[in-house]
Structure formats: C-alpha cells, structure tokens
C-alpha cells in the first residue's frame, strides 16, 4: 500500500522504528497481548506490550511469546514500563479508604481485604525486570510516569534498544531533552489530556495543565530547545486525525482506545460492553479513585461513588498508587461474582464513542486507508 507524502521527521521515524506505517499501538497494561502486538507489527505498524503492572516472570513470557509470533524480518515491538515514585505505605490512610469502600463490598457479600498491598514495583526499583530486559533485548522500550536513572538508561542503550519517554507538559519534555537530548532518548511520546488510561505525569501531586494533544504537540514542536522527535497520543481514533498530527510535524502517532476492542486484546466482557455502549454512559472521566493516580476511564460505579463522596463533602485521602489499585481490583472482582461489571478500570480516551469492532489487522488497514483518503481529499 503506497503512502501519502511524508515529512522528513516521519521518514526518519519509519526507518528507525523499522515500520511501514507511522502508527503505534499503545502499550495498555492489562489490555495488550503478545498476539495484539505481533499482529500490528506483522502488518506494518508498531505493536506494544504494557508490562508496567507485570512481574518479571510474566514480562519474560510476554516478550518471548511476542518474539515467536512476529513473522517479518527484523520486526520490532515496544515494551512499556512504569517509573512511578515509590509509594508511601500508610496503614491509617489505607484502613480509612477501605472503610469508605465497605458499603460497596457489602453489596456483594464480600469482606473487606484485611490490608492493602503494593501490587507491583516501579521499574526503577525492580532489578529482576531490568535483568529480563538486558537478557531479552527488546528492540524498543518506553517509559510512563517519569524518567529512569541515567545508569538504567545507559544499560538499555548499550543493548541496542530504542528509548521513548511519555510527557504531559512542556516542563517534562524539557527534562527529557536535558537528560536524553544527546541521543540517549530517541522519541518523546506527547500525551494529551484526551488520552485514555493513566496520565503519564511525572508528579501527580503537581498541578496538571490538562493540555490537549494538539496544543501540547504544537507547544513542544515550537520549543527550539527540544530536538528529540515527538510521537502524539491522545484522542486519535481515525485516519483524519492521523493526518492532522503528522502534518503538524509529529514523527508518528500512538493509538490506544482504537485497539482496545480488537479480538486480540485481553479485555473482559464488562470492558467490551462499556466500550461499545458508551453512548449510554455518555463520557469518560479522569479519576484517581480507581488506582490512586489520574487515569481516564469510561464513567461507571466507581466514578459515581467519587461524585457521591464529593457531594457529601467526605474527607477522602487515597493511598498512594498503586496501593489504591489493590482495593479497586478487589472490589471489581467481588462485584463480578454477581455479574456486576460496573467497578472495572475501563480505561478509554475521550473519543471512545468512535471505537469500532474490527480485528487488529482490519483496524490498522482501515486507519491507513482513512489517512490516505484524508490526504487525497485535501489535495
């Protein structure tokens, strides 16, 4: 399939990433699978694995399985890790939050968890995960929630991995430039406020500027101090929007919600129903209540609870991420036993109503066709 005219930035990205189309399937921890990632890569895009919530053994299996499924020469894929700050474990805050959730657990005849746990480590302190990466040498590694140490970045660069960092504002982009502008960091992933799932914001306690994908991309592209190429993500659901960001100057685009509903993903029955019936729930909401960090989800019983507690002026102090997530997952699992799927972490972008029921190969082909059509219509 021939491509529309490409900018130099996009041409260079295609060469570096080893892909035919400047379309990246977002990592999406808990949703992406080796089959989804490999299907996208095998058909000319860049597939990704979300390993941030996995331990090193699961991560190892997912990477190996993806390598086996990729059937094109030098086919690359991306693995994504979380670099969040080490959580402060406060038993008093944890207990208070569990007690505030007690009425919800009681609806489903389930006892409260005795205690909350840190359900996964930050990559920054997970030596076993680093060993797996150094051993398996994934071609592309991306990071969410911040920057790893220089030491870790250099080790990953030495094995030949392409490195990418997600940012949510200009300050973070400048920090990435200062740390990796010497060739250490290959791409900046620019996440707009429309994006589904967790905000990649480095410090969730700082004021979030909530910039749209377009405004933030434009801001970073116009910053002369930044020379690292950028990839846009957030709200991009069709070829027309792909054209918009590539023509703005982005090297590539990253899409998540677009691929959530593909049969190759691992979403459950509830997630699928919420995604494809979003007209009923009308919107997505940014919330900390599910995981302890800001994340955009399709509104559900968890977001209803948040609104209810706010209206009642209840003093809510959430445990640190990912401790809050332990409670969220426990409540979701309790409710599912009664066929209630309303407490799930149904991460989705602002444009989720545009989601389509296509398999991964069809989705990628459709996006490319739409992009080509949009370019042709302009010309």
Automatic annotation (TrEMBL):
<protein>
    <submittedName>
        <fullName>Uncharacterized protein</fullName>
    </submittedName>
</protein>
<dbReference type="GO" id="GO:0018580">
    <property type="term" value="F:nitronate monooxygenase activity"/>
</dbReference>
<dbReference type="InterPro" id="IPR004136">
    <property type="entry name" value="NMO"/>
</dbReference>
<keyword id="KW-0503">Monooxygenase</keyword>
<comment type="similarity">
    <text>Belongs to the nitronate monooxygenase family. NMO class I subfamily.</text>
</comment>
<dbReference type="InterPro" id="IPR013785">
    <property type="entry name" value="Aldolase_TIM"/>
</dbReference>
<dbReference type="Pfam" id="PF03060">
    <property type="entry name" value="NMO"/>
</dbReference>
<keyword id="KW-0560">Oxidoreductase</keyword>
<keyword id="KW-0288">FMN</keyword>
<keyword id="KW-0285">Flavoprotein</keyword>
């Amino acid at each position: 399939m021939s491509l529309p005219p490409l900018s130099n930035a996009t041409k260079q990205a295609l060469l570096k990433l080893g892909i035919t189309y400047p379309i990246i399937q977002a990592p999406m921890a808990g949703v992406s699978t080796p089959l989804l990632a490999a299907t996208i890569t095998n058909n000319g895009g860049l597939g990704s694995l979300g390993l941030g919530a996995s331990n090193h053994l699961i991560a190892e299996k997912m990477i190996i399985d993806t390598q086996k499924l990729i059937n094109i020469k030098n086919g690359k894929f991306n693995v994504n890790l979380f670099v969040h700050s080490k959580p402060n474990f406060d038993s008093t805050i944890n207990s208070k939050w569990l007690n505030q959730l007690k009425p919800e657990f009681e609806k489903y005849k389930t006892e409260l968890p005795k205690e909350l746990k840190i359900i996964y480590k930050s990559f920054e302190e997970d030596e076993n995960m680093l060993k797996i990466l150094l051993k398996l040498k994934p071609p592309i590694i991306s990071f969410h929630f911040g920057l790893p140490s220089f030491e870790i970045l250099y080790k990953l660069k030495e094995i030949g991995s392409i490195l990418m960092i997600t940012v949510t504002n200009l300050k973070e982009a400048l920090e990435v430039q200062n740390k990796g502008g010497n060739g250490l960091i290959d791409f900046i992933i620019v996440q707009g406020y429309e994006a589904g799932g967790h905000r990649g914001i480095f410090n969730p306690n700082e004021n979030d500027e909530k910039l749209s994908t377009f405004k933030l991309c434009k801001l970073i592209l116009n910053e002369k101090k930044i020379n690292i190429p950028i990839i846009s993500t957030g709200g991009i659901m069709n070829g027309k929007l792909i054209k918009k960001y590539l023509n703005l100057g982005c090297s590539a685009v990253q899409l998540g919600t677009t691929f959530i509903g593909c049969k190759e993903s691992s979403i459950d029955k509830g997630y699928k129903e919420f995604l494809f019936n979003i007209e009923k729930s009308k919107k997505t909401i940014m919330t900390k209540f599910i995981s302890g960090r800001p994340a955009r989800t399709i509104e559900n019983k968890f977001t209803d609870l948040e609104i209810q507690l706010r209206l009642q002026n209840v003093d809510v102090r959430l445990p640190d991420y990912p401790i809050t997530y332990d409670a969220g997952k426990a409540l979701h699992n309790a409710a599912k036993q009664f066929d209630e799927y309303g407490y799930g972490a149904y991460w989705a972008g602002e444009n989720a109503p545009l989601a389509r029921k296509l398999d991964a190969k069809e989705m990628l082909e459709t996006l490319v066709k739409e992009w080509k059509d949009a370019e042709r219509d302009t010309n």
